[in-house]
Amino acid sequence: MIEFENVTKVYPDGTKAIEEVSFTVEEGTTTVLVGPSGCGKTTSMKLVNRLEEPTEGTVYVDGVDNMAQDRIDLRRNIGYVIQEIGLFDHMTVGENIATVPELREWEQSRIDERVDELLELMDLPGNYRDQYPRELSGGQQQRIGVARALAADPDILLMDEPFGALDPITRDNLQDEFLEIQDRINTTILFVTHSIDEALKMGDQIAIFDVGEIVQYDTPTEILQNPKNEFVENFIGDNRTFKQLAITTVEEVMEPREERPPGDGDVISAATDGGDDYAIPADASLQVALTKLLGSEDPTLPVVRDGRVVGTVSERHVRSYFGPTEES
Amino acid sequence: MQSAVSTVAESIQFLSENFPEFLQLLQEHLLLVIISEITAIAIAVPLGVLAVRHERLKSPILSIGNVAQTVPPLAIIALMFPVLGLGFLPSFVALFIYALLPVLVNTITGLEDVEESTINAAKGMGMTPYERLTKIRFPLALPVIFAGIRTSMVINVGTAYLAFFIGGGGLGVWVISGINLFNMPQVLAGAVTGALLAITLDIGLAVIESRIGTASPDSSQVAA
Ligand SMILES: Nc1ncnc2c1ncn2[C@@H]1O[C@H](COP(=O)(O)OP(=O)(O)OP(=O)(O)O)[C@@H](O)[C@H]1O
Ligand SMILES: [Mg+2]
Q1: Is A183 in the pocket of ligand 1 (CB under 6 A)?
Q2: 3 state DSSP class of A165
Q3: Could you report the per-residue pLDDT of A65-98, keeping only the tens digit for each?
Q4: Which phi and psi angles does A12 have, rounded to 5°?
Q5: pTM
Q6: Which domain holds residue A282?
Q7: Cβ-based neighbour number of residue A224 at 10 Å
Q8: Most CB contacts within 10 A, which of A37, A267, A306, B127?
Q9: Domain B2-223 carries which CATH code?
């Protein structure tokens, strides 16, 4: 858990980077800091692992004022993906990833295992282990930066624009991958981006920053449905409804099907009759669902999970989710 | 052209006729260069680290190095004579002083030129200042430091000829007395072998560098 309590940071040169900032990242959740360049996102992040120290206020890490914790221990327990990637050019990919486990003096066999595991997780071929960072593409380097931060299984992860250097398609893939990883590792994550779309996609909570302060701290849905002021509205952009379609799953709007005994022949055939293209996975977004509905002869399509029909969805369900007042 | 060819032939003959003496001079020369160089490295590298760690020490350290470098080598040698007399010791001290600066400057530059983002990453991952120095800054600066050592070593081979003036021996014995006697074959025999020595030492250092250095892509290409 990370807690900011009235934190102000003034740099020695007099720049006030953030002022009276308070928010909490609950254990196992992801909070995304989003906002224009220079609004204090990186500074906030550095306050967590004490690369910077607050001028006023307190940052609690796992309930304890981080100024009272040993700086080195604190950092070794927090994974950190820095904005500039910052790989060590004189070390191989494997050595880069193994940095924190090495510092923590893990056994060599355990380190090797972990490096292999992470290369696989990041979808990098095992022979990259012995290559040098400069031999790799920007996107690959960024993935190694993420792997390096994850190496020692930290409870807390700080990710400063971890997918910034990627083309939209790779970024999208990596975001998906990371959401999956996140499900498995249950880490408390503070994630920085300047893209609202990335924030909506990655965050359980989003903190929208204007210069030096948080304007709104809410769930993605809440931010889309009730932007607090004009700054937030402008930041989201004008296609709010469309964005909401992207972050809402079919499951949230479908009509659930009554429980039937497992193995019911009718249920299974309904899911498979029309082929894979016919049914909609329960965790698909409403964008996907609408696209399918618009392209389908049937007004209602089955929703499936693990090959079983769990409900049905039609345009009407999507519409009613947004309520009658929603425009555009 | 004729005379140049014959001079070369004569100097080869001179070399082979005086081979035992040549080996003696070469050994003196090499010893002077290597011992003064190693001492210079042993002093300059820690001094450079100190200068980088403590900003306040940097300019005094650098100015000491600069002063040492601006005094002409012959003057340093002349200055050593009244203090330390004749022979190996004053020659060694003079060469050491002269070898110091390139290593010092390159150590400081190399350590300081490591990118801020790299250092920040190391810090953020919980490296102590000492670990950052030994695991990050120093290995990344190593190619630059080595470049300084190589420059300094090559200069050192040339400067060591002057040791002759204060009885330090070395190849300067042939070259300088050869000049005085208008004995061109002798001058050439001493000078060319010195040049070959410089080249050999330089290559040797390059090999060492690629061995101990980070086997980073570009330095391994140099070795290949
Ligand atoms: N070391 C520093 N010394 C002085 N001012 C700084 C320092 N680091 C950052 N700042 C200033 O603090 C403010 C916030 O910087 P910060 O890096 O936190 O912004 P950011 O939100 O991460 O921006 P970006 O999206 O461009 O990365 C900026 O005005 C910046 O110029
Ligand atoms: Mg930033």
Answers
A1: no
A2: coil
A3: 999 999 999 999 999 999 999 999 999 999 999 9
A4: -55, -30
A5: 0.82
A6: 250-259+273-322
A7: 23
A8: B127
A9: 1.10.3720.10
A166 within 8 A of A8, measured Cβ to Cβ: no
Residues paired with residue A78 on neighbouring β-strands, in sequence order:
A156
CATH number for the domain spanning A306: value is: 3.90.1280.20
CB atoms within 10 A of CB A127: 9
Ligand 1 pocket residue status of A47, Cβ below 6 Å:
no
Cα distance between residue B146 and residue B48, in whole Å: 13
A89, A99, A148: residue with CB nearest B216:
A89
Whether ligand 1 lies within 6 angstroms of the CB of A38 is answered as yes
A87 at B interface, C-beta within 8 A: yes
Cβ <8 Å between B124 and A51: yes
Domain co-membership, A45 together with A95: yes
pLDDT in tens, B74-116: 888 888 888 888 888 888 988 998 899 899 999 999 999 999 9
Ligand 1 atom closest to residue A33's alpha carbon, by position in its atom list: 21
Distance in angstroms (rounded) separating the CA atoms of residues A241 and A122: 32
Length of chain A: 328
Q: Does B217 touch chain A (CB under 8 A)?
A: yes
Taking each helix axis from N to C terminus, what angle separates B88-112 and B55-70, rounded to the nearest 10 degrees? 140
CA A45 to ligand 1: nearest atom: 18
Residue nearest to ligand 1 atom 8, measured at CA: A43
Of B126, B139, B140, which has the smallest distance from its Cβ to A75's Cβ?
Answer: B126
C-alpha span between A131 and B178 (Å, rounded):
55
Q: Which two tokens stand for residue B160?
A: 């060591």
CA R_g for chain B: 21
- Tell me whether residue B190 is exposed, middle or buried, using C-beta atoms within 10 angstroms of its C-beta: 0 to 12, 13 to 18, 19 or more: buried
Same domain as A7, residue A72: yes
For ligand 1, atom 29: residue with the closest CA? A38
Interface confidence (ipTM) of the complex: 0.80
Tally of CA atoms within 13 A in the half-sphere of B181 that contains its CB: 12
Is residue A112 within 8 A of residue A95, CB to CB? The reply is no
Look at the block and give the residue holding tokens 């012959």.
Answer: B74
